[in-house]
Amino acid sequence: MKLLQKILTKLNGLHFPQEYLCFAKESFPDPLHVYLVNNKRIVKDITSQHLFVGYCPLVFAFSLSDLPPSIQIIFSPQVLQPNEIFTAKDALATLELSLIKKQHHDGTDIVYYEVTNGIHHFLPAFHQYISSLNNQWYNKKPGNVFLHDNLYKQVQIAYAVPRLISLITVGGNDLFNLFPTDLHGQADETHYIISLRTGGKACKQVEAAGKLLVSQMHSQAYKMVYGLGKNHMQDLKTKDNFPFGQALSEEFMLPLPEQAESYKELELADSFIHGIHTIMLFKIVMSSQLEPENDTLVHIHNSYATWRYKNKLQGNYLLR
Q1: Structural contact between residues 247 and 257, judged by C-beta atoms closer than 8 angstroms
Q2: In angstroms, rounded to a whole number, what is the distance separating the alpha carbons of residues 279 and 272?
Q3: 259, 218 in Cβ contact below 8 A?
Q4: Residue 256: strand, helix, or coil
Q5: Residue 175: count of CB within 10 angstroms of its CB
């Protein structure tokens, strides 16, 4: 079986050895644009107006008003204007979404959509088929969330946009946890959304505390940040078990991780469960910029990175 897996890996068409590639967001030229579309026309550029907050199922959040129950979005390398007609070659990837929840808090309206189908052209059809076989045969492991064929494609599409990998500090009374998240984002000036695995220790710790610290990280901290992934299933521990610096946050007095660029102190306001995720809405208590925002840690999926490589687009990737 190992030989067959090696053969599939050689035939999957992916250029890079890792599924997710880290880099500094500010050094990434010509990223994809995300557009809300209707009947082959561009409605709105939502590249910076959507939040990726779930992967099983795939969930996006919007603080946009008057969205219909079903929407379509495309991912395109082209700069397109509202009401412009787009062609098939303009849509490098397409997602179909359906409304699952409306949320209102302190004057803010947020809507959540689940992706029902996705197609992309990052890789040729043959290579996508090989990747699908490898996923079906080798990714069904104990403790691993299996992504069925189209969900796997949806995840590849969602991670074609650089996603921030931040660190969450939770705890108090000399016991803490520190773990990464990339299912999160600021909904508006006063609200922030974070999604955590329902039943996981990290999720339970955040629910019990009712508050947390989320830190945006310097790209050079990528190995440290990825290495903390195991902490989603770890108990609270003393401060010396984590790569904390000496600084504390202003209001909550929670320890800041080393190499943090900025942080936000968040207070839990609401939550709901969808699929494997508990999607949490927070009120922003305080924000602080520690360093200039010019080297921020993000990552993308190998499939889109391979498309960029084949199209001679730069990618200053930090391989782990």
Answers
A1: no
A2: 6
A3: yes
A4: strand
A5: 14
With a cut of 70, list the residues of the chain below it in pLDDT.
1, 4, 8, 133, 137-138, 140-144, 146
Alpha helices in 50-181, H assignment, sequence order? 125-138, 149-158
For residues 28 and 151, give the distance between their C-alpha atoms in angstroms, rounded to a whole number: 26
Which tokens belong to 129? 């088929």
Which residues face 186 on adjacent strands? 192
SS percent in the chain: helix, strand, coil, step 5: 25, 45, 35
In 10 A of CB 237, how many CB atoms? 15
pLDDT digits (tens, 9 = 90+) for 272-310: 999 999 999 999 999 999 998 889 999 999 999 999 999
Q: Which of 76, 266, 87, 74 is nearest to 168 (CA)?
A: 266
What are residue 227's phi and psi, to 5 degrees? -65, -20
13: which 2 tokens? 């068409």
